[in-house]
Amino acid sequence: MKNLFKKIKGAFSALKQSAVSAVSRIKREIRMAAFSVQTTLATGRAEGYVDSGVKILIAVVIGALLLAGLYTLFNTNIIPTLTTKINGLFNYKG
Fold first, then answer.
1. Same domain, 29 and 67
2. Residues 57 and 64: beta-carbon distance below 8 Å
3. Lesser CB count within 10 Å: N end or C end of the chain?
4. Do both 7 and 19 map to the same domain?
5. Is the pTM of this model over 0.90?
6. Are 2 and 38 within one domain?
7. pLDDT in tens for each of the 94 residues of the chain?
C-alpha cells in the first residue's frame, strides 16, 4: 500500500513538472509573439490586407475605364474574339 502511494505521488509529481514546463513554454512563445508584433508595429513597414485589396480594386477600375475609353474612342470592337465567345455563351442550347 505504501508503494502504491509512492507511485501515485511520483506520477503526480511528473505530471506537475510537465505541466509547469508546458506553461513556461507557452509563456515564452507568447512573449516572443508579442515582441514580434511590437517590433512590426514600431517599424511601420507592414502592409495590411486591406491596403493590398484597395490597390487591386483601383487597378481593375482603372483598367476597365481605359478599355471603355478605347471602345468609345475607336467606336469599334477592339477584341472581336471576346465578343464572339460571349455571344456563344449566351446562345447556348443545351
1. no
2. no
3. C
4. yes
5. no
6. yes
7. 778 777 787 877 888 888 888 888 999 999 999 888 888 777 776 567 788 889 999 999 999 999 888 888 877 766 778 888 888 888 877 5
